[in-house]
Design goal:
Helix content: 55-70%
Shape: elongated
Oligomer: single chain
Number of strands: 3
Number of domains: 3
Strand content: 5-15%
Order of helices and strands: HHHHHHHEEE
Largest sheet: 3 strands, antiparallel
Radius of gyration: 27 Å
Amino acid sequence: MEIDLRDFEPFYTWIGHAIVLALIAIPVLSFVGVIVGYIVSAVRYGPIEGTIAVARGIGTAFAHDFRYFSLRRTVAIARVAMKEAIRRKVLVVFVVFAIMFLFAGFFLDTKSEHPARLYLSFVLTTTTFLVLFLALFVSVFSLPSDIAHRTIYTVVTKPVRASEIVLGRILGFTAIGTLILAGMLVGSYVFVVRGMRHTHAVDGALEATEGPDGKRRWQGITTLDRHHRHKFT
């Protein structure tokens, strides 16, 4: 059975829009972070002192952190973040992913006339939610866990800047998510190909019908295979 690619939006039609949204989201989220930081500082120290603290933080970031930024230290922290994520057994997501595929047949509509859409929708939805759950789990519990176990002190006592720690962790978690997503891609491909690898034969004789343009058309129905059949013209 062949998949009609016209049912899905091509990669080149949405990747540009996604990049634009990402470029817009970065400054917007940065601005929101500054506002939240000001609110917290204003509540703790007062409006004037809060403004001074936020301004000092922004000035320090541009004058020192960004100026003396080191890609080497950032990559090193990213590697540490990846090792920590693996040590926290984030690869369990693969096990959950495999189990969902093993029991997918009990939940998918086997009588659907469009199994290609069904299978692809299932794998895309599954990978999306699992990767989102992984990203939230790793990013939310990583830094508090390091503080609780005092492992963060072995990093901050070294000549490493705060921006390098934050960016390094982001890169490390992104790399872990990308590797897991690549593994899911292979598993999804095998799952879809196995589910779609079948053929149909014409069931009965073709019927002649008149189309909207007045021309004669032939239509028929396929044999039942994999619990479904198709109508064709």
